[in-house]
Amino acid sequence: MNSRWDKTLAGNDPVRRDARAGDDRGRQEAAGAELTIPAFIRGETVDTGLVPFTGRGPEASFLAPDPMGLLDRLPLGDPARMRDLNALRVDDIVGFLAELGPRLALSRNALLREALERSATWSDMTPPLLAASYEQLPGLFRPDAVRAVVERTVGAGHLDGWHEVATADGGRAAVRALGARTVHVIAGNSPIIAALTVIRNAVTRGDAIVKTPSNDPLTALAIARTMAEMAPGHPLTRHLAVVYWKGGSEAFERRLYQPAHVEKIVAWGGLASIRHVTGYVRPGLELISLDPKLSATVIGPEAFADDGRMAETARLAAVDVGALNQLGCFNARVVYAVTDVDRAARWGRLLYEEILRLPEQVSTAARRFDPGLRADLLAIRASADWYDVIGGRRDEGAVIVSRLPEPVEFHPSLSGRVVNVVPVDSAWDAVRGMNAYTQTVGVYPEALKRELRDVVPLYGAQRLVSLGYATRVRPELPQDAIEPLRRMVKWIVDETYDPADVHPFGHLHPGAPPWDAR
Q: What is the pTM (predicted TM-score) of this model?
């Protein structure tokens, strides 16, 4: 990037030398050397002070810098150092990300290729799904995509300067959205989460410390190191740190999670990790929780009117169930079908067949099928009066058709492309089974979705979407019933009044004489 920020000569920059060495290091590690996962701190790659960590899976151990040894370098220190971020305009940020995006193509990026290769050990995704996910990364950084995130969340007017408004009492106010010092505790079920975190932090102009997960410790690191290779002196590079530490390391986290160092925590992840992070919340330290959810589908009686519509809705529902191997919060676990048991069973067989037909870039048999779920499936096969179990004998996925209008008791643990079809008399029977744990509701037909959309949020559901599109999440739209980017910034207000126009305590004493009466 040719700009005033790129002041370091490539030949003398250790960050650039480190990035170029990625191919050699990857080959050495593949040959048998123990994997080292460095830290990235504000433009510098750190691979000293290494200690062992155990990742997920039998061969997932690695070395990484001792986080206790990084504590003095991770926090920004003087908040005034964020002035360079606040000086950036939206056009600067869009331009930076637009140049970064193409550099994240697997064909150009050895660091991301290494992340993809290593993820085959850590991730619950299978290799075809991982490759397809990494291929999506460059598109997230396109200018039109980033501008959509800006304008439909915080707005360029509030990011680029002070947005002035008149107050109802005769004064004036100026409002600006400023970045915050933030720790991002990200999830590793998709590499896209790491990319979205980098984009969101850039758009909000935050100073970010990204805690990487044990099932994907390399993607965010690879993106950060690519930023340093492209523009080592840019504020977006200098205000980013990427570090692995084991969640629950109380001695480390207690010292890091102080309002003097951090103003916000954005936490993705499972129930245990979210509960743990809440222990550090206090005045001056805000938690933005993107916690785990479950999703469902409601299919109206129109879907069962004829064979053609049954086949088409089964094909659409298969995407909501099986895409990304049902690893996302947005994947359907329970399908409420407004029909009788016999039609539900016929439709369930169609659904099972369509799940198996999904292309490998979209869905495969689970890499690690839950043994507890396997035992549950085996157990309910013996209850033929209550359940039909279609498939599942080879861990390829299954459809459980309930013969009562209620889900199986273990429906929250459904995974590996296993879904429960529940016949109900009315869509409202399905709605009553929803709560604040319900994220996405796929609905067919559209008329039913419009009928439900003013009611299901009262029960806790957060997103309604056309059947077949549950996994098509747009980063410019609200997530989990909040607008994360609007909460990631600090909304600062500058209020101006003139005593000649607004009495200083007139709101407390309406009968007070004019301010200049004495």
A: 0.91
